[in-house]
Amino acid sequence: MEAIGAHDVTIIIRGVKRPALAKRYAASARPAHEVVLSHLLERIDGYAASREEYALVIADEVQEQAAHRADLTRYRVSGTGGYRSRKLTRIVDTLHFAPSHASRLVQAVDLVTFLYQRLDRPGVDPREVAANERPWSLVASRCYHCWCWDPLARLP
Fold this sequence. Notes:
- The chain is an alpha/beta fold.
- 46% of the residues lie in helices and 12% in strands.
- The N and C termini lie far apart (33 Å).
């Protein structure tokens, strides 16, 4: 985490509470990975636009890579859908997938994601929280956007 925090990187994290997604959208729920990827791509595109830059997206290998690439093509034409629908104009090329064991950058993303998930759990022993907050403090200033959506939560 120290190495990640020491570099000029921007962290964008998106997640979804899977049980809440399934409960809220019962019969019509999109797969959680598809939902999160669309939300993440919206944020990446928005960040790149705010800096007048472009982004190349490299992700950990997953099932349905071709479907995710097709989704990106659709998002460029008709938008991502949902309450923040956005036509993606700042993501170049296609989605690239790499095995995490072969990419230090993908491994770094895995570490940040793992730690964020540990901090996002309610009812954890305060000693565990303190132990997790120390390494998180090394990357917290690099976070542009970090949020795990709970589809059942009421917004203020």
